[in-house]
Amino acid sequence: xxxxxxxxxTFLSISxxxxxxxxxxxxxxxxxxxxxxxxxxxxxxxxTIGGRLSGSQNAALAVEYTKNELEKLGLDKVWLQPVMVPKxxxxxxxxxxxxxxxxxxxxxxxxxxxxxxxxxxxxxxxxLEVATFEDxxxxxxxxxxxxxxxxxxxxxxxxxxxxxxxxxxxxERYSGASVAAxxxxxxxxxxxxxxxxxxxxHTGSMGYGDLPVSQRIPSAAISTNDAVALSEALKDNPNxxxxxxxxxxxFDDVLSHxxxxxxxxxxxxxxxxxxxGHLDSWDLGDGSHDDGAGVVQSIEVxxxxxxxxxxxxxxxxxxxxMNEENGLRGGRxxxxxxxxxxxxxxxxxxxxxxxxxPRGFSFDCSKGNLAQIEQWRSLFKPYLIxxxxxxxxxxxxxxxxxxxxxLAGLRPDSQRYFDHxxxxxxxxxxxxxxELELGAATMTSLVYLFDKYGVNQVKNIPQIKD
Length: 466
Hints:
By secondary structure, the protein is of the alpha/beta class. Helix content is 38%, strand content 24%. It has 12 helices and 16 strands. The longest helix has 33 residues, at 3-35.
């Protein structure tokens, strides 16, 4: 065949591929924006069920609700995967204050998830302010013993990636109490990991490591406004005393479930692709951004595929993971069962960064797969989706990692996420319907492309040959 003719035919083939994909994505976005169900699902999950702390009755209600909604979609399979999860209960509302020459100033705190309670009557002691563990080590046991350690480390404001800022100081929240206890502290108060100044304390997980139960000390988060006020008061009076009281309690593990639905692939049913978010949340708000948004977007992916008339070649599962917030039991259980069954997972996508405007994806994958992904960037450009980079994917899909799988994380605009993260203002009214639906469509589009072309299969896109 004439070489010029081969070139023309090949470019026509590429054009047809591109046009088909462009039209498919256009239809997916149209379906989500004009006939989407994600916002209605989130409304029920947030406003009827509410916060879904691992091991709670609300978490059990969320399992039942999402399973029923998946069954209504007419999927090939829907099932519950048992998993034992921690049960920690906050108890009565926490209270705290510090004393100044002008009187008592009440402050906003909340117990960190996994913390022990204060003794009966609360904990009252002088305060030592630090920013890092290095600061604490520099003070030593002689100065720390018998004190409350106030860890006042703010998110780094000049980091555009707010998740990077959060990661930079989350270790102080998680391990602050265990480290301070070894120096003889009687409690820790941790500045909330929020990117704005307000009166909301932000909870989150913490742990004691190998510290004996008898040596564990209570730990609470303090709002950013009150952290500033406490720091200023300490400058005037380094000997002021702080009081806080919390009644949280840790119980034995209880039975819960991951919720799973599947469309079985037509050509490669033993190649599995999953999309998911975590069904549990903290208890202060209703968990709309973290991670109700990811849950309903993931369910919507399977609905949009069906509504768009797309018949997947590979088996596509939605997995709603339980216990991401304080244990990651659901993600680990799913990976464990997948390994036992020798299931071939080729792709996993997680949404756990809020329901804000989607900006793109980060990928944990091989260079070959990243090269294929780069060829799809132009398909997302009309929707202002430009962020395609190697990086972190997600906590729940992380246990699936191997040399062959592609792990991906939806990356929405993150500038407002930590205003709500783990706080009482993580509520349904903070989620924009259109932004949520754009995220669902963006996730569906990526799933469609990976199902169509497979992983590390650049050869599926026609190439010019001599």
